[in-house]
Here is the input.
Amino acid sequence: MAVKQEDVVLAFKLYNLAMQALLRALESSGSTLDEVRASVDAEEGKFFDQNQRRIDELKARQ
Amino acid sequence: MNTEGIMIPGLLERIVGTVIRTLLAPVFTILTAKGYITESDSAQLIIEIGVTAVAVIWGVWSKYKDVILIHLGLKMQTGSTYDQLKNEARDGKSLSAINKTNVLIPLLLVGVLGLSACGGDAAKKTEEAIRKVYIGLQAASESVEILNRDGKLSDARALQAYGSLNKIGAGTKQFKEAIRSLGAITPENKGGLIEKLDLIIAQIDLARKNDLIGISVDAVAKIELNYELAKAGFISLKGLIAAVKKPVPVRELPALAELNPSRLPSLKYYAYEPGPDCKQSKQSNSRFEFQVSCNPFSGYLASHGARN
Here is the structure.
């Protein structure tokens, strides 16, 4: 029973994450081309920084 | 209410939020009664999911209204004003002339697959497609972290997944820089761009196949949406570029090509329903295919194994 409880909560966490991503994807990122490009560069930087941080944390644990 | 920058009228939020929470409450009552979740988890999850669902519905509805305006605008004479367009939109006869199903289905696909249906400069659309890819990759990376933290994914597998995501991100960055450096996309240079996009799409598919092995199929289904979001951004870009027949300045790529449903990929969703009375079934419409399977691994194998 405890295992199923964790699985259900995990499923909802992942679903919520997917929906949050969908929300951010739906919204506009700016009104001019330069604003949109700046937003793209910001999202790119955020992705690489977060991904690398996670890799570094994992390697530090090993 | 402001969810990630989307302003939702307060009254609408209260109405829709109440409806969503009312619909969800019986589901959570059953899950709590069976002991799958505790009451405190239930209360928190209802709030979180209700808030998210309200914002998603509002976001899709806003985009639907934008797409209606785009379709009407395309039918009006050059030089028409925005006020004339809005008057046309208020006119029921004009709206009925647009097949709303044809608008709604690609819009829902656009929303789900991450393609933007806002009007505006075509170069902006290209950049927004790339932005959606990065949002999908961020969510995929966070999904891996959640699964690793919850013990569903080993450290080694998580590292492999992060590595795959880094490769996809690097390919995306190369494509972004290539497209920004081009003054125009021509029939001569578009082949090279399409090759770059094909490589990235193949990397996404390979990452989906290799990095999700060993994870429960329920978790896989939740992560799939993030991969689809990223992949769909590239497929939409590919469609835009493939449509180029004569030299086109990057700023003037065909703006509405992605609204053509035939350019959009179809989605397949797999659901696992356990139980002695499980019956396999299949439902589909023109764009979505839903497969209910009694085998917990059939959905995953069918969506990945056949391809490679």
